[in-house]
């Protein structure tokens, strides 16, 4: 009886671990028609670089064109920083460019999504899509 209970518990634990891994992968997807962002896999027509350093981004506002494939690169100049545009479900990692096409015009606030120190909460800027 104990052996059967141990096997059942092990199987339930394995299912939960696999489900958690699968859910995390799905949550990190950056391709979504409902958010107006597409990772096209095509060559970029435009490029922007967001530089992060000492609890701030190098510009308060970055502007890109609606519907234009744009390569966005995050350069972390003093350690680990990341960028999350919550409204677009878009995440950027340092030195890993992404080519995205944003189809919805508007202003989107973004923030550093890696706890980088005491000034972390002040690391915000805007992405304007015209």
Automatic annotation (TrEMBL):
Annotated ranges, domain EfeO-type cupredoxin-like: 16-124
A Pfam family of this chain: Cupredoxin_1
Keyword Signal: yes
Name the UniProt record assigns to this protein: Cytochrome c oxidase subunit 2
Record organism: Paenibacillus taihuensis
UniProt entry keywords in alphabetical sequence: Signal
Taxonomic path: Bacteria, Bacillati, Bacillota, Bacilli, Bacillales
InterPro entries linked: Cupredoxin, EfeO_Cupredoxin
Record's signal peptide: 1-19
